[in-house]
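Please annotate the following for my students:
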Amino acid sequence: MFQKVVVGVDGAESNAKVLEEAAKLAASSGAELVIVHAAELSHGRLAVHREPPEVGKDILREAKAAATALGANVVKLIDEEVGLKGPAGVIDEAAVSQKADLIVVGTRGHNVWTGSVLGSVSQRLLHNPPCPVLVIPNT
C-alpha cells in the first residue's frame, strides 16, 4: 500500500495522536516512516527568536521512541528551520526528497474562523501536495 510515510511533529501533547496514527499506519503497511520537525521562529520585542536546536532533537528523539514502540520502521529524522517556507514547506520538501507516498499531519485546533485567517500547516499542504495528505484531528 504505502512505501514511505512522512509525519510532521511539533512536540505538542495534541500532536501525539497524529504520530501514533502515522506509526500504526506505517507499521501495518510495512512502510518506512520519516519524522519531520520544523523548528519554529517566534517574534520577540526586538528580534525573531529561534527555537534552540536541542528542542528539535528532543522532540524527534521522543517521537522516534514512540513510533518505534508502535512497530514503525523509522528510517529518517528531519529537523529543519522553517525560514520563509514555513512548516508546510519543510514537510512538503521532505516528502519530495524522501519520495513519500503519504504525508500525515494534524489540525491546529483553531476554530474555522481563526484557521481561515491564520492558516494552518494542513491547509497549506492540501493546496498542492506532492502526494496524498492524511489530516488527523488533534484531540
